[in-house]
Design goal:
Strand order of the largest sheet: 1-2
Strand content: under 5%
Number of helices: 9
Largest sheet: 2 strands, antiparallel
Shape: extended
Number of strands: 2
Structural class: mainly alpha
Helix content: over 70%
Oligomer: single chain
Distance between the termini: 47 Å
Order of helices and strands: HHHHHHHHEHE
Length: 224
């Protein structure tokens, strides 16, 4: 009990940014009690619980695969592959129900499949935000490179900066191309999620938000 109190005090002393970073990078190493304390701190501060949920799903998927003969690295790759597969399917326009069934066909436990489906939107939003940051960094690098070229040619700076400018501009362009395309991918995922919600409303079908995964996805997740 004393140890848990100390852990709780440590969480309370963290800033929001520190707590978020800890949840993303370290939550998979926590005991169940420590994880619950972390989640309680998120709820107390009204922070995005999607971060906790994503970390929880990754941890549980990894634990699930660790029960087989695969090693730790394979377990991590297993969890990552399921996330990427689900996002790719949603980008292609598949419905939640179709993705869910496809995950079951891959012998994924139904509760993990359901949890992945529930977190697709939150995960995609985080990825879009991340690639937005990378795009900004690409523009900064491209601008810095262009300025270095101009000042180098004008003689304001050493001609060495011309070479630096071309290199920085090239790297900036590559970063922009790479991150714009990835950002577009997850924006398409979000657009498909929104389209599915709209279609569900038109047909008077609504998602049933429940705390535990369904025994039967179509019967529990959708209702008229």
């Amino acid at each position: 009990m004393i140890q848990l109190n100390i852990i709780q005090e440590q969480y309370a002393r963290m800033t929001d940014e520190e707590l978020e970073g800890f949840a993303i990078n370290e939550s998979d190493k926590l005991t169940l009690d420590s994880f619950h304390l972390l989640k309680a701190e998120f709820e107390k501060r009204k922070m995005d619980l999607g971060i906790i949920e994503s970390a929880k799903i990754d941890k549980e998927l990894t634990d699930l695969n660790n029960q087989s003969t695969f090693g730790k690295l394979t377990a991590h790759q297993f969890a990552e592959s399921l996330w990427q597969y689900s996002l790719d399917e949603k980008e292609g326009g598949k419905t939640n129900f179709e993705i869910y069934n496809n995950l079951l066909n891959k012998v994924v436990d139904e509760k993990y499949a359901f949890m992945i489906i529930q977190s697709l939107e939150t995960t995609s939003k985080k990825l879009v935000d991340n690639y937005n940051t990378q795009v900004i960094a690409g523009w900064i690098m491209l601008s810095a490179g262009f300025m270095a070229i101009v000042f180098g040619i004008s003689g304001t700076l050493s001609q060495f900066f011309i070479l630096y400018g071309f290199l920085a501009s090239f790297v900036g362009i590559l970063r922009l191309y790479k991150n714009y395309s990835k950002k577009a991918k997850y924006q398409e995922v979000l657009e498909n999620i929104d389209r599915e919600k709209i279609n569900m409303r038109k047909n008077n079908i609504f998602p049933l938000i429940i705390a535990s995964p369904p025994t039967s996805f179509p019967a529990k997740y959708y209702y008229h």
